[in-house]
Design brief:
Elements lengths: L1 H8 L25 H8 L8 E4 L1 H4 L13 E4 L11 H13 L11
Length: 111
């Protein structure tokens, strides 16, 4: 976590997968891990921008370092922040909902 915070302090933009691992399931999202909340609490001025990459597993198969030249869509949402006094689970639920709302209409939200 310290390296992430240092990179943010230096002005870097980072891509974070809040699920903690690559989602190789049929579910649109895995449960979010606490890291996103911890970043938001530690650096409240940093915009956390939900970003949906449609077709991610096709253009960037697990284990590959160079994307395959296929068509994909990247959709950016409105920045979110941890609200004052907001509990971890409430924030992570709100963040997951913000991300899911960017998904294409054919994605099943699951249970």
């Amino acid at each position: 976590m310290q390296k992430i915070l240092e990179a943010l302090d230096e002005g870097s933009s980072l891509i974070i997968f809040p699920e903690g691992k690559r989602n190789m399931t049929e579910a649109p999202l895995l449960p979010f891990r606490a890291g996103l909340y911890n970043i938001g609490r530690s650096r409240p001025h940093v915009d956390l921008v939900p970003t949906w990459v449609a077709n991610l597993n096709e253009i960037m198969p697990k284990g590959e370092v160079i994307p395959i030249p296929l068509i994909c869509t990247v959709t950016f949402g409105r920045p979110i922040h941890v609200e004052e006094g907001e509990e971890k689970d409430a924030f992570l639920g709100r963040a997951a909902q913000a991300l899911f709302e960017l998904s294409p209409g054919d994605v099943d939200p699951g249970p």
